[in-house]
Amino acid sequence: MEENTNFIHEFIKEDLAPEGQYAGMTVHTRFPPEPNGYLHIGHCKALCIDFGTAEKFGGLCNLRMDDTNPTKEDVEYVDAIQEDIHWLGFDWGDRFFYASDYFDTMYDYAVALIKKGLAYVCELTPEQFREYRGDVNTPARSPWRDRPVEESLDLFARMKAGEFPEGRYTLRARIDLASGNFNMRDPVIYRINHAHHHRQGDKWCIYPMYDFAHPIEDALEGITHSLCSLEFEDHRPLYDWVVSNVPIPFHKPRQIEFARLGINYTVMSKRKLRRLVEEGLVSGWDDPRMPTLCGLRRRGYTPRSIRNFCERIGVAKVSSTVEYAFLEHCLREDLNETAPRAMAVLEPVRLTLVNYPEGQSETVEVENNPNDPAAGTRRVSFSRSLYVEAEDFLPAPVPKFKRLYPNGPECRLKGAYLIRCIGCNTDENGNVTEILAEYDPDSRGGDPADGRKVKGATLHWVDAATAVEAEVRLYGNLFADESPDAADRDYIDCLSPDSLVVRTGCKLEHMLGSAAAPASFQFLRLGYFCVDSRDSAPGHLVFNRSVALKDSKK
What we know:
With 554 residues, the chain is an alpha/beta fold. The chain has 12 helices and 27 strands.
């Protein structure tokens, strides 16, 4: 089998070679989510890269909560992130950290930079920052750049003590105001923020910026390879500057960037997803239409399908957009092998076999999964009165319709008998209330005794005497536009009105009455469905459609 590799692996092999910078060392990566929301499918790519790379090279991968911005962070998200990662099949062992674990050390390092003349307290307002930022031909400027070291030390200590309001001062790294890389134009590394921290409480009112905190965290944890998305490529010089100038007694990690995952018909900004939740446009972070892992899990996605999706799209240096249909394909491929088959009728209409003895019932044998002989068969009850899909009947024939209509072709009832429609009953409005048919008692199992050719379709059905009732939710894309994130529109305006269709009064075969989450099934001819983990309960079955049987798009 061809080795699964990518450009990141090639870089690491170079680093581990005898002449490489990490020769003889253990590969050590990290996955550092900010606990300000739930993980989504975009995070899965980074997860698979971080944990998968460590696994490939026999190394280690840390889980670190990047909790340096207390405004939106919460323990709820910390717990959810851990649950999602474990669900995907990854584990960090005892290597679980918080960025806030290093706040004291980061403060000391900032003080050390001030003493070296490499940082200063600045008084520019946000408006002045923009005014003094300069452009490609004009250096940035700050009237506070040459503030005496002792004065900056005093102000920074007082910032920490809580003497000043938010926005009054910042601490900036003293690097190069004329740099062509604007991230190096004396970036802010500390700001005042009087916010309660989910772990530190009110101990701190100044917080490090990500570009200052992240390289320190990596270096302190002994990370060899800091793998991150492509938008941090321009930040790499600052990353290297920080670890080179603060007194960290460890080696320098190597930052390597890869392209983020883009998928059409969705958005993956946590800020935008939070808006959907807060404005009630979805039922929560775990709404099955959301790209969050908890939403995908509730919809019936499997860890294997998601990991397979991430592996097959590969690791690239250039951003691209993957079709949502490919994610669905990976799920369909997985469930086709593993999901038990079942029969369910979503728009039921009664089918009466007029020549089947009244009061008689029997069971017929149906395979559980034709792709898995070991799954065996099950017995399904059968009687005179059944339910079939309303769309499987027409009062009058139309071209190429090979299902039920009066005096139409013989059709198979899955695993049972051949039937032929002879008519129907309607209500006062002309709506079909009952389909009438005759069955061939010599065709048990669906094959005629005389070997005649059956021209009609094979239909799924449910025995009316033993059927259980359920609510079935048919989910589609949350957005009608394939590019809801486009700059020329508000993504909220792109929401699809057809992203959820709810069917009540659905009839399911009896064995589904005891199904519980996260069980998934293929409903014959309809798609793959799972028990809803939030709303389904004994006496009130709720199934979610995970994915249709066939690709909806090429």
